[in-house]
Amino acid sequence: MEAREGGDSRENALVDQLLKELDQQLKTVQVPTDGRLITPWLLTTRWNEWAKWYKKPTEELRALVSLPQLSLPAEENYGNLYDSIRSYFEEAAMLIDTTDELVLQRLNSPDPAKEGISNMPFHKHMHQSTLKQYIHPIVCFVTMLLRDLWFIGDANVDISRLDDLFEQGAPDQSQIIRQIHIVLLKVWTTPWSKSKYYIVPDPTESCLALLTLNHDGSFKQPKDVTKLIAKFEYCMRLTFLKEIRERASASPDMDEATACDSLQPWFTEKNYSTFARLRSLQHRASAIAFSTMSLPRIWWTDSEAWSSLNYRGNPIAFSDVCLIFRDVEEKLVDIWENKVLRGLKLRVDYGHILDDPSERSVGYSFMFDPRNTCFQDRARLVRAVVEGKGGFSTFLLRYQDELVWNRSALRGWLQDYAEMQKLLLMRAEMLSGAPSRGSELTAMLYRNTQAREVRNLMVFGKHLTLLGQYSKMTALTGRDKLIPHALDALTSDILIQDLALARPFAEIAAKICFGNEEVTQLYRDHLFVNFNKAFTSDDLSAVMAKHSLPRVQYALTINPWRHIQTAWKRKFKCAMEDVVEMDMEDDIDSLQAGHTRATENRIYGLSTHSLAAAAEDVLPLFLQASTGWQERCQVMPGGSGLPYHQARSHLFVPKAPATTTNTTSPAREESTTTASLHNSSTSYALDNAMVDNIAARVTERLAPMLTNLIQGLASKTRTTSAEESSDTAGPAQGQGKGKQKETVAEDTWETPSMPEEEEPASEYPSCQANLCIAIAQDLPILALQRMQMLLRDDRTSWRSYQQRDAMVAILKREKDVIVILPTGGGKSMLAIVPSMMEVNMATILILPLNSLIMDYERRLTAMRVPYQVYKSGQQLNLQDNLVIVSADKSQMPHWRSSLADLRRRKEIARIIVDEAHIPLIAKGYRRSLENFYEVRSEPVPLVLLSATLPPIFMNSLTNMYRLLSNHITCRQSTNRPELTYILEK
Q: 156-168 vs 136-146: helix axis angle to the nearest 10?
């Protein structure tokens, strides 16, 4: 027994040793020999090979670029390294204000040979704190250079001199700052060449690689690397700016432009420089990031009512999210009534608030508009405090016959006021539609200022609206982009009461407590104030986490909430993709006027409802997107004008179902009831899944009866056709033969004569498609019957045998098909007829022109053909087989998602592209069509229709759409004999 126990202990020791050795292997960077096991990013950078070459554990490699370790004897002198580098770059940034603008433009032009000189000059960051974030990787970089483990040739002398200054504790910090400049300039103006042993010779790139090395030996994703590169690039430009100014001031013969000329190769692309290398990496990382589909963070646990999901594995129910809003509402009302007003029954009653969005005068807000007389007395709370009413009895004390403010009470009140502001900020983020960027939301102004003439709080109609300034776009382009968000009813009213009653006293209290003009200015202009400072994104995330954790057991901070809210608003159809795409696509009116929609938004037709990024007809859609989300969250939507005690969530009553008829398929009058239920604006009245289930069951029962009925008609038609074959030997013989008339559209389609040569034998094998209504030999007859029914003309015949063969090939669904028919050759019937013949099978029709969509809608309505036009984010219904989508929308991710969802519920027969030649000629002016080959997002046959494609472009068309090699081509001559071309000298 003892021997056995001894054997077990030896075995356990062996196992432990093997596991320890394996663990040591995992702590180093591994490089697979099979390139397929390496990411495209590492294949192009080879950073993993370079890290493996060091033969050091991952943590030791990461330590090379860590901040100074003051506990180590060798680095105890680097205590002021961070402050020195910060002072260096702050001094460099100050030079921007006094530098020639053309020099700044050149400094901000990374590739002047290709793109010219940028009109946007190199500039400071909008937030002062941003520079502190940007210098962090530079601190790590300089620390790496100072460590003994790093050698970079000639620059070692300058690095050693900097190390000596730190070791000696130079009393004059300017010496250290000067030496930092020398070191950085030396490193960034040295051409670094690869060698056999130095895969990554540039120390800046080496630092970048180590900064992206994770604890487990992997590397960060390209999307995360771009941020670090951007920080390096900005700091490099500051260093070159400082050197330009020094060279210009050192010699009377050299000005800033000449100094810029001498340094330009080091801060532009396509040169042997560190800057060029980083720009190359930036381009590659951006390309990979943009073309790589991220793995989903969200998994739906309820794919019918969309009531619950998993975010990164954490279960979150929508009902719990709604409870968060109720909790915050209770807390907000309590703070307002009992801590801000201290029990006083104060209120400003208002009706229709007047606001002039175009007013740019300093200090203007609807609060100060003389037309809004209800806001003229803003001192009501101030008077109540002075008089000691309610809970304000101790705010003003009498001392030696003088009135003295109780600063302690004032500070306590300001803290309570800040708590209320946090809750208002949180509701603005979570309940006003698509989440705003935290940095923009926390810096909003409620009235115009000298520096910013467009305030962020306006009233549109009855909606109190936040205009989110997309400051990232402002910094990049120099132009504002304002995005409207309508506040819910309760938040709107309390915010108005706050600005009208509490804010004047808050401004006075802040001035007394802090005596700081900057703090007082915050209370005077900012919409949200956090005691004695502005809110930050971290503050917003903290309050969101505080109130979400008890309900969903997960901290819904800014970033997680953006993902989660986006997923739900798409499913609930209160997304804003329609708003965005409306400006991407040119409409008929703007094209008729001779300009684009973007030009129209910028110049023409501006009204008091116009914004920088939304025309007057688009703005209501933004507000509807906000209120639609609020209704889903079971809070009183904005625009109601209700006082907050009447806008409580427990008083919210969902809207009644709409009773309008289906506008997507107006021909189906017999199914008005089902259509109205399906298209109700309140989808919670009747779940889409229920409608689809009913439709599927009806289709299942009707299909056998329709099959027998149609096959009987087909048999009778074949007999009739055989008897009349002698009368139809020639397509042109007999009055009315060979013509196809659309009587319902009040116009006649002229039909070219059928060619007199003998028709070729059919190349198609017997049909294997899942058509329950006919066998292969019945397809031409049944398709012709359907055309006759649609056009209401029994004399309708095939326009050409090419049209007939194309129809058969499309119905068989065995191969891709290219159809070239002349104008009036019956191409549209190739898309319409299959959708009418097939049971519970969808035909996707992609149209590249808005005018073409309108024309199809007119004709389909006249022919009473059921159809649906896809709108962004909507769930496709099961009733209408013909689905029309614009070419631009067909490239969007939300379309692919809707199509995949439809395929799970219904078979997709084919994808048809009308005017398929347009993407060949549209690459220069319609960017959305540049990757049009991706139109086939489902494994189904692709059908291309055109009337104007010359034979020489057939290969280009085939390659662009990536058709299968065995595709079928049905081409009829597109000659127009009625047209005459006259060549004159």
A: 100
> Rounded to an integer, what distance in angstroms lies between the CA atom of residue 105 and that of residue 121?
4
Tell me the two tokens of residue 884: 């029309």
Q: How far is CA 968 from CA 279, 472, 774, 815, 944, in A?
A: 47, 50, 22, 7, 10
Label the pairing between strands 882-886 and 968-971.
unpaired
Query: What is the structure's pLDDT at 95?
Result: 95
Please enumerate in sequence order all residues whose Cβ is within 8 A of that of 46, keeping only pairs 6 or more positions apart, or say none. Answer: 199, 200
Tell the residue number behind the tokens 């067909």, with chain if given. 890
Beta strands in 441-592, from DSSP E residues, in sequence order: 457-460, 463-469, 482-486
Nearest partner of 206 among 282, 278, 131, judged by Cα: 278
pTM, entire model: 0.59
Whole-Å CA distances, 790 to 12, 655, 743, 825, 864 = 82, 39, 10, 16, 8
Q: Mean pLDDT highest for which of 314-328, 392-406, 451-465, 872-886?
A: 314-328
What is the Cα–Cα distance from 786 to 771, expressed in whole angstroms? 15
CA 691 – CA 465 distance, rounded (Å): 36
The count of other CB atoms within 10 Å of the CB of residue 981 is 5
String of DSSP letters for 599-642: HHHHTTT--TT--SS--TTTHHHHHHHHHHHHHHTTSPPTTS--
Q: At 859, phi and psi to the nearest 5? A: -70, -40
The answer to whether the CB of 106 falls within 8 A of the CB of 112 is yes
pLDDT in tens, 717-732: 444 444 444 443 343 3
Q: Going by C-beta distance under 8 Å and a sequence separation of 6 or more, which residues neighbour residue 288?
A: 40, 41, 222
How many Å apart are CA 534 and CA 442, to the nearest integer?
7
Angle (nearest 5°) at CA 877 between 876 and 882: 80
Q: What tens digit of pLDDT does each residue of 440-458 get?
A: 788 899 999 988 888 999 9
CB 951 within 8 A of CB 975: no
Q: For residue 106, give every residue at least 6 positions away whose Cβ sits within 8 Å of its Cβ, in sequence order, or none.
A: 112, 117, 260, 264
The answer to whether 494 and 423 are in contact (CB under 8 A) is: no
752 to 724, 731, 798, 828: CA distances (angstroms)? 22, 10, 11, 16
Contact 213, 61 (CB under 8 A): yes
Q: Where are the alpha helices (DSSP H) in 64-199?
A: 81-94, 101-107, 112-115, 128-134, 136-146, 156-168, 173-188
In terms of Cα–Cα distance, which of 355, 54, 424, 94 is closest to 206? 54
Identity of the amino acid at 807: M
Give residue-wise pLDDT tens across range 589-631: 333 333 344 443 433 333 333 343 444 556 777 888 889 899 9
* Average pLDDT of the residues in 304-318: 92
* Distance separating alpha carbons of residues 958 and 942, to the nearest angstrom: 11
| Helix 173-188 with 136-146: angle, nearest 10 deg | 90
Q: Which tokens hold the place of 578? A: 């329609």
Separation of alpha carbons 276 and 850, rounded Å: 44
DSSP string of 330-395? Answer: HHHHHIIIIIISTT-------SS----TT---TT--GGG-TT-GGGS---HHHHHHHTT-GGGTTS
Rounded Cα gap, residues 31 and 938, in angstroms: 36
User: Which amino acid is present at 321?
Assistant: V
Q: How far apart are CA 481 and CA 142, in angstroms?
A: 38
Burial 914-948 (b: 16+ CB within 10 A, else e): bbbbbbbebeeebebbeebeebbbeebbbbbbbbe
Pairing of strands 396-399, 402-405: antiparallel
Residue 460 · residue 592 · CB < 8 Å: no
Integer-rounded Cα Rg, in Å, for the chain is 36
